[in-house]
Specification:
Layout (H helix, E strand, L loop, with lengths): L2 E4 L8 E2 L2 E2 H8 L3 E5 H10 L5 E5 L6 H9 L3 E4 L2 H9 L11 E5 L4 H10 L2 E4 L2 H8 L6 E7 L21 E2 L3 H10 L3 E6 L8 H18 L5 E3 L17 H19 L4 E4 L3 H4 L3 E13 L2 E6 L8 H5 L5 E4 L9 E7 L11 E2 L3 E8 L6 E5 L19 E6 L2 E6 L4 H5 L7
Helix pairs in contact: 6-7, 8-9
Length: 424
């Protein structure tokens, strides 16, 4: 097990959205996801310059979160039939102008194809076969095309959604063929979408804007909307800068204005954030159940694992970690510790870098029974969870206006096994 030193602030956190962490843990149990509604509202307000903020609900699809964003004015993106059902359950109408729900994918599974046809859900096609399969069933509808410009960017190879190593989008040199195919089936291409990865920087963004502009011009004046995609970064480390949203918007707005001049009509500018809206709102509270000295390394072992938060093991992602002591008003020194979970896997470590390199974190001295709070955990936390090691899904709580609401109860062992069937 390779070890290295990692910088951290080693904070003690006693409250989330004004409520005591210890009280939340005692009332709802651990592991526990907690979301601060005020943070979600603030991040949504950041993006008001755009005509449409379309929430990529794959980041956190709890109905209460999706409903909160709907009431705040956001529209929604769905990448599966299940996410369409969630959007409908959260109160979104199936169709309208602009489309309240957009189905964005590279394939139609059979459930999704039937659902978008039945509900008249707007479709963002990421492959030519989607155009064909949709066009064989319906005619006269409008679609958006997701284009892969031939390059990408991301904080991890696994979050890079552009270029020839990415499965996403219609390859840029095949756009003409896709347009011909759409015309053949009587489908009108009214939108162009381009998303090239998470954590894009402004220098790279200018290339994306240029590529989308060229694609939209090739698609022609039926285009009435362009989507900047998502991937807006959020600060995970203490000194991470915030993205310059004003410049980000200006780059896209310039692209929109040039297209409006070329087409002679207005063009709607959409943005499709997921992580940006919910990541900072989320906290994963877990209890320290064991403290172990393994040679030179001290381990804090908690009751949450990568079955609850998979980003560290998948991407080597950094999450701030703070201590919520069970007994307050204690002065504590700091120690160098590794934070691990309960799973029967050596990779079940929250303090690791990409490639599986385990790192130490400077954290307050702790005792068994204290709580650790894994922060900036609102995006790609619960939604990427699993029942690995037959661990039940965690509960989720939304704090709104000072009140904690249980928005998903903890899965029971009986529910976990309910789908299993024994042969007669």
């Amino acid at each position: 097990m390779s070890m290295s030193r990692e910088e951290d602030s080693g904070l003690v956190r006693e409250r989330i959205a004004g409520l005591q962490v210890v009280d939340l843990a005692k009332k709802f149990g651990t592991p526990l996801f907690v979301y601060d509604a005020a943070v979600i509202r603030a991040r949504l307000a950041d993006l008001r310059r755009f005509d449409v903020v379309r929430y990529a609900q794959k980041a956190c699809s709890n109905l209460a979160v999706v409903q909160l964003l709907r009431t705040g004015g956001a529209l929604v993106d769905a990448v599966s039939a299940g996410e369409i059902h969630r959007a409908l359950a959260a109160g979104y109408p199936p169709s309208g102008d602009p489309p309240p729900i957009v189905y964005t994918a590279d394939i139609f599974d059979r459930d999704a194809l039937e659902l978008v046809i039945e509900k008249n859900i707007h479709v963002n096609c990421g492959s030519r076969h989607m155009i064909e399969q949709y066009g064989e069933r319906v005619s006269g509808r409008e679609i958006t095309l997701r284009i892969n410009p031939g390059f990408g960017h991301g904080h991890s190879r696994k979050t890079n959604t552009g270029g020839d190593l990415s499965k996403h989008g219609i390859w840029h040199t095949q756009l003409h063929d896709a347009l011909v195919e759409a015309e053949h089936y009587g489908l009108s291409v009214t939108g162009i979408h381009m998303h090239i990865g998470s954590g894009t920087n402004l220098e790279h963004l200018s290339q994306v804007c240029s590529a989308l502009e060229q694609a939209a011009l090739e698609a022609g004046r039926n285009v009435r909307s362009i989507s900047a995609g998502g991937g807006l970064p959020v600060p995970y480390r203490p000194h991470d800068p915030r993205i310059d949203l004003a410049t980000y918007f200006d780059l896209w707005n310039g692209t929109r204005r040039r297209l409006e001049d070329a087409f002679g009509h207005g063009v709607r500018l959409e943005i499709e954030p997921g992580r940006y809206l919910v990541a900072e709102s989320g906290f994963l509270i877990c209890e320290i159940r064991a403290i172990k000295q393994q040679g030179d390394n001290l381990f804090y072992l908690v009751d949450a694992g990568f079955n609850n938060l998979a980003r560290p093991i998948l991407y080597g992602s950094y999450h701030p970690i703070s201590l919520a002591p069970r007994e307050t008003a204690m002065l504590r020194g700091t120690v160098e510790a590794v934070v691990g979970g309960p799973l029967c896997e050596s990779g079940d470590i929250f303090t690791q870098e990409e490639g599986g390199f385990v790192v130490k974190r400077s954290l307050p001295q702790a005792a068994v029974g204290d709580y650790l709070v894994i922060e900036v955990a609102g995006a790609y936390g619960f939604v990427m969870g699993s029942n690995y090691n037959s661990k039940p899904y965690a509960a989720e709580v939304l704090i709104a206006d000072g009140e904690p609401w249980l928005v998903r109860r903890r899965q029971t062992y009986e529910e976990m096994m309910a789908w299993d069937m024994l042969p007669d």
